[in-house]
Write a structure and sequence with these properties.
364 residues, Rossmann fold, Alpha-Beta Plaits, 8-stranded mixed beta sheet, 3-stranded antiparallel beta sheet, 11 strands, binds nicotinamide-adenine-dinucleotide, binds prephenic acid
Length: 364
């Protein structure tokens, strides 16, 4: 017996899910595309078994349907699907970054012999599109599910069982509570990052040194400002009430900082940093998509020709896998900072030990 999984919106998240399921015993993955060029791309990249432009064809006989389109299109797809003759017992789920409105939409549709369970993998990236999809995206990340009251337990278990292919950790959350929490830990940080980048962009118009000198701190806090504008327009508008409250709280926090500076209250500044430091150090272990998607090592490297090759050779000879390598702020005759990214913390620790013991003047 085969299990058919239909994925609507084979982008970063839909494509990553497809890659987790494709090729697993008895599973067929069908991708729905809203443009012919996208359908061809899904197939040529080997992300799905079949691709179709037809909603009916994708949904026909599907055991699971994943809605992975922007938040602003979720209701439309759920409504269209609810009007189709779906397979009895079919489970529809979504991956949208907000959960309250889609849970309400599903409740209003009063689906028969078909179930809706809201979902939200707490993993992602500033990149988008099927090109950015990877089966490793959800590994060790939390994956929120928002089952409606009265959902048969075996239906919930069946989705959880399928999601075990993602290697994510499932967590049940109430949809309204979910939107408040992700408002604070995901949506607000995206707004702040964008506002900060745009503030510096305006200063840079009169003096390009702003961009040129922007180093680790600016890059660390602003990576997510490069996220897809349409995806984030939909998320923020959908979570508008929560965001308006949180941005008002943010303004109060910034005003408190302004007062500390006006009053030259050094002790107050120290306390603010210490409080933040304490809270941050008690965050759960580093997980993909939450605090860091990788384990990073920053190294001051001298401006010697071939230094990158030497470092990667040492790592390669010791079978340490790098997931990324980047030179930050490298100018002629000036030491640069190299960022080495690893998927495993143990790889990062071994690399640190090995590089500490080399003759190259590397300071970690
Ligand atoms: N990016 C993240 O970090 C992240 C993390 C978790 C959840 N999400 C949620 O996942 C969903 C998809 O986000 P993504 O990052 O994969 O975006 P993406 O842009 O990579 O993928 C979106 C997909 O939807 C398709 N699409 C766009 N408009 C459509 C329309 N009108 N009709 C049909 N298909 C359409 C696109 O072709 C693409 O395949 C969103 O709801 C988002 O909130 C995103
Ligand atoms: O790591 C990133 O780039 C993300 O933006 C991932 C992130 C987040 O804010 O943590 C973004 C949106 C999601 O809905 C879930 C995860």
């Amino acid at each position: 017996m085969t299990t058919k999984i239909a994925i609507f919106g084979v982008g970063l998240i839909g494509g990553s899910l497809a890659l987790c399921f494709k090729g697993k015993p008895g599973i067929t993955v069908v991708g729905h595309a809203h443009r012919p060029a996208s359908a061809d791309k899904y197939i040529s990249r080997g992300v799905v078994d079949q691709a179709t432009l037809s909603i009916e064809e994708a949904a026909l006989d599907a055991d699971f349907i994943f809605l992975c389109v922007p938040v602003g299109n979720l209701d439309e797809y759920l409504t269209k699907l609810s009007a189709l003759p779906l397979k009895k017992g079919c489970i529809i789920t979504d991956v949208g970054s907000t959960k309250a409105s889609i849970a309400l939409a599903a409740e209003k549709l009063a689906l028969e012999d078909v179930y809706f369970i809201g979902g939200h993998p707490m993993a992602g990236s500033e990149r988008s599109g099927v090109e950015a999809a990877t089966p490793l995206l959800f590994e060790n990340a939390y994956y929120v599910l928002t089952p409606p009251p009265g959902l048969p337990e075996e239906v919930y278990d069946s989705l959880v069982h399928l999601l075990s292919y993602t290697r994510a950790q499932i967590v049940k959350v109430d949809p309204v509570e979910h939107d408040r929490i992700v408002g604070a830990i995901s949506h607000l940080p995206h707004v702040i990052a964008v506002a900060l980048v745009n503030q510096v962009c305006d200063y840079n118009k009169d003096n390009p040194l702003y961009r040129q000198l922007a180093a680790g701190g600016f890059r660390d806090i602003t990576r997510i400002a490069s996220s897809d504008p349409i995806i984030w327009r939909d998320i923020l508008l959908n979570n508008r009430d929560v965001m308006l409250q949180m941005l008002s709280d943010w303004n109060n926090g910034i005003s408190a900082f302004v007062n500390l500076l006006k009053q030259e209250d050094g002790e107050g500044i120290v306390q603010a940093f210490a409080k933040a430091n304490d809270f941050r150090s008690e965050l759960p272990e580093r997980r993909k998509g939450m605090i860091a998607s990788t384990f990073d090592l920053y190294i001051d490297v001298p401006d010697h020709p071939g230094i990158i090759g030497k470092i990667t050779t040492i790592l390669g000879e010791n079978h340490i896998n790098l997931s990324n390598i980047q030179i930050i702020e490298s100018r002629e005759d000036v030491p640069g900072i190299m960022r080495l990214s690893f998927r495993q913390e143990s790889d990062m620790e071994r690399a640190k030990e090995l590089l500490n013991n080399t003759d190259y003047s590397i300071s970690l």
